[in-house]
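Suppose a colleague, Dr. K., hands you the sequence of a protein chain of 230 amino acids and asks what its three-dimensional shape might be. Before reaching for any lab equipment, you can write down a predicted structure in token form. Begin with the sequence itself:
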Amino acid sequence: MIIPKHIAIIMDGNGRWGIKKKKSRNFGHKKGLITVGGIINAAIKKNIKYLTLFIFSTENWKRPAKEINYLFKLLNNYIDNEVNNLIKKDIKIKVIGNIKSFPKILKAKIKNIEQITKQNQKIQINMALNYGSRQEIINSIKIINKKSLKINEKNISNFLYTGDIPEPDILIRTGNTKRISNFLIWQLIYTEIFFVKKMWPEFTKNDFYQIINNYKKIKRNFGGLNDKFD
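The predicted structure, expressed as tokens, is then:
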């Protein structure tokens, strides 16, 4: 039985769910944040060591300023409200992406939460913020060139934002959309992908557990052969 170490999630469908409920896209984002808390607790219960959440992509800047500002407000409030819980639950926060263009106060809070949780060991939450996988790969190659190293798979992997993180065993995408949207495209080569019809605010810990159970049944050969029938 294979136990996943790393699960990545594209938390899609917040805005559509809010509209569906005859509210607003921001209402959906707020409800989606509640779902995040439940899934983090579920991951801890299942002893998942790494959970990567696609929170804000490089493409999300195309959204209306009002929605972007609300997302930043939610993230700001989450850090303020959850800092003690993160420490109590032994949760480490790591940012993957480039947050230079984020508001100054929010950047400071993000860097601070990374610093004060860096020794925590129960689970590592990778927050993908202003993250784009193509840009991540380009950035890795630039570092390799600057260091005058060989451009090969090992070095590209080492200088990605996720250089010290195992590649995901599972990718979950909610929202009834079947694409990876510039998310971890280098890291997902042998990841088992689960597309879920439910919008992210509707996603439950039982859905999460079911995916883990389904994953455990998968025979993973990584391109090789495990028996004479393959």
